[in-house]
Structures are given as C-alpha cells and as structure tokens.
Amino acid sequence: MNEREYMKEKKRIVVKLGTSTLTHEETGTLDLLKMEQLIRILTDLNNQGKEVVVVSSGAIGVGRKAMGIKERPKELSVRQACAAIGQAKLMMVYQKLFAEYSQLTAQVLMTKYTMLDDISRRNAENTFRELLQMGVIPIVNENDTVSTDEIEFGDNDTLSAIVAALIGADLLILMSDIDGLYTDDPHTNKDAKFIHVVEKITESLEHMGKDTNGSLGTGGMATKISAAKIAVNSGADMVISNGKDIYNIAKVVNGESVGTLFKAHKLEDFDLTDYIKTNR
C-alpha cells in the first residue's frame, strides 16, 4: 500500500505559492499559463468538497515589475509601495481566472499582530470559517504595505503554517523552487541526497536548512523547516514540492510520492500565540 494513500482523505488544505512558482524566471512577470492551470487545480479540489486556502507570494515582485524596478528595492517605503501596487494587480488576476470557473475567492491580508491580539485572531479565525463554509477560496498574504516587522523579516512559508494552525488544516503544501529537502544544497553538492519523509524534525535536520537567496522570494529551506515545526505541532502534515510542475499539488493530494513529507505529530499543549511571541 502506498504510504501516502491517506493524503486522499485530507479535507482542509493550505497551499503556499512562492514568487518563483507564479512568475517567469527570465522576466519576473506573472506566468499566466501556469496560473490558469493552478486555478483549475484549486477549483477542482474545492469541487471535490475539500476546503482550500491559498497563501500567495508575489505582490512586491509584481509591483516592482509594473514600476520598472529591476532589483528588489532596499528602501522599506519603496517595498511597501510596490506591495500596494502588486497586491491589487495580483488579486485582479486571481479574481479574473477564478471567475472563469465560477469560483468565488476573497482577499485576506494579515500581519503578525493579527495573531498576537486575541480579538483580531478570533476575528480572523471566524472569517476563515465563514468563507470556507461558503465554498470560497481565500487568498492570503502578509499586509506588507503597513507591516514593517513582516516586510523586513517575514516570509510566506511561516505565514502559511500559521494560517494552517489557525484554521485547523490537516495538510499544508509549500510550492517552492526545489523538489524538497536534501541533505545538502543540491545546486552546489551533487552528492546531496533527497529526503522523502521526515518523521521528526531534529536539530541535525534543522542544520541542513541552509538558506539560499533568490532575487524574488524571501524564504529559503530554513524557513520551510521552521514552518514545518508549526504545521506538524498543530496537527497538519506538510509537503514541500517543486512549483515548476503546478500539478504537483494534485499529485500530493492524490497520495503520490512527490516532494518531502513532514509527518504531523500534534502536540496537545501547542499554543500558536505563545509560539509566535517567543519567535518574534
């Protein structure tokens, strides 16, 4: 029996899409063909009765491309302006593509303080619950336009894990620019071995998560392992898969052995708010 057969039973799924997944590597512009395929996959999951939440990167990249800024800006105010421009353009594309399949979607912008404030956190949880009950697919992003902490240090790997824990998701899929977790950086070490399943996140495993810096994204493997700790402790399995093949989302949910699976081991005393406070 396929050890991932149980993935077919997952009901509440968070899918994180990195900038490299949504854009053309050569130009930094949105890959519309891939996004059309993505929307079909996500809508079909929803049609199967599964609840789907998307955490989408790309706002700053899309914004700076629209403004003709070639490199990721260093000035905070410029990044925030690019985020404001790019978020609107990104949501316009999402809305248009989802509308072709009569699928409703919604924008949810969050900051770290959304989770730290009891009232804001409950409001966010209630909003997600209502949207999912209505069959809507929420599109989540950090509110980079106003969130100075997040725009400087945040990443959507962590945000997606926090969303998964908040809504009680049973599966988190991180679509990245790499096949999964390796024993070393496969770009520089040809002897690096691929890790198919992680039963437990150990200290030695965390040392494998050496960050690699891209021109568009902000999260390296270290952030993905950090996200995995949040996800698995909250009771969600997590899979890192390569976003170059957008159909990997469907393959993961169908139980195929793609990417690296981090197995859930729910901690009864895991408190998401406390975790965020101690990792600020």
UniProtKB/TrEMBL annotation:
Catalysed conversion reaction: L-glutamate + ATP = L-glutamyl 5-phosphate + ADP
GO biological-process terms attached to the record: L-proline biosynthetic process
Domain Aspartate/glutamate/uridylate kinase: 11-240
Annotated GO CC locations: cytosol
Keywords assigned: Amino-acid biosynthesis, ATP-binding, Cytoplasm, Kinase, Nucleotide-binding, Proline biosynthesis, Transferase
Alphabetized InterPro entries for the sequence: AceGlu_kinase-like_sf (IPR036393), Asp/Glu/Uridylate_kinase (IPR001048), G5K_ProB (IPR041739), Glu/AcGlu_kinase (IPR001057), Glu_5kinase (IPR011529), Glu_5kinase/COase_Synthase (IPR005715), Glutamate_5-kinase_CS (IPR019797)
Compartments where located: Cytoplasm
UniProt-listed Gene3D superfamilies: Acetylglutamate kinase-like
Binding site for ATP: K16, S176, D177, T218, G219, G220, M221, A222, T223, K224
Family: Belongs to the glutamate 5-kinase family.
Protein name: Glutamate 5-kinase
Organism, as annotated: Velocimicrobium porci
